[in-house]
Write a structure and sequence with these properties.
By secondary structure, the protein is an alpha+beta fold. It contains four helices and nine strands, in the order H-E-E-E-E-H-E-H-E-E-E-E-H.
Length: 159
C-alpha cells in the first residue's frame, strides 16, 4: 500500500472539529477532537477517538466524563487555542471563557452548542487512539448556525 495515497484518501473522510473538555480530581483540560460519531439513539451514545498518550486521555480514564463543544464556522481561532496539548492541568481552561458543566467537564461560553457525556466504555486496545464511548447526559445550544469542520480550517489530522 502506498502510504502517501493512503494518507490522502483517509484525510478525505469528512470530520467535524470540536473542543473536547475533560475533568478529573478538580483539574480540567481541553483539546481539539475530530474523530467523533453518534453510535446509538437509545440511549444516546457518542464515540470519540482520543490519543492514548495524551494527558487528556488519562483524565478521561480517571474522571469518566467529557464534554464536546461545537464551534461555528467563524470560530477557528477558538479551536486553535486547543490544538497543542496543555502541559499543566489547572482548575480553569486557558485561552477561552468556560464554565463547569453538569459532569464537571468544561463548557466553552462561546460554543454554539455543547454535549456532556459520561464514559461507558473505552476500547481499541491495539490502536494509538482509544475509542471512548460516552452516553449523552446533557446538551445545550446557544446558536443554530453551521458547525466548524476540519475541512473549513485547512488543517489535517490522520491518514
Amino acid at each position: 500500500m502506498d502510504a502517501e495515497i493512503r494518507k490522502t484518501v483517509l484525510r478525505k473522510i469528512p470530520h467535524g472539529l470540536f473542543v473536547a473538555g475533560v475533568a478529573h480530581e478538580g483539574k480540567v483540560n481541553a483539546f481539539t477532537a475530530t474523530w467523533l460519531t453518534q453510535a446509538s439513539f437509545h440511549p444516546p451514545m457518542l464515540v470519540m477517538g482520543v490519543r492514548r498518550d495524551s494527558k487528556s486521555f488519562a483524565m478521561i480514564e480517571g474522571g469518566r466524563v467529557f464534554s464536546l463543544n461545537l464551534l461555528g464556522k467563524d470560530q477557528q481561532d477558538i479551536a486553535g487555542e486547543f490544538v497543542k496539548p496543555s502541559q499543566e492541568m489547572s482548575d480553569t481552561l486557558p485561552g477561552a471563557a468556560s464554565r463547569t458543566g453538569k459532569t464537571g467537564a468544561p463548557i466553552l461560553e462561546d460554543a454554539i452548542a455543547w454535549v456532556e457525556c459520561e464514559v461507558r466504555e473505552i476500547t481499541n486496545p491495539m490502536g494509538d487512539h482509544a475509542l471512548v464511548v460516552g452516553e449523552v447526559i446533557d446538551v445545550g445550544q446557544r446558536l443554530d448556525v453551521p458547525a466548524l469542520t476540519l475541512m473549513d480550517t485547512g488543517w489535517h489530522y490522520g491518514g
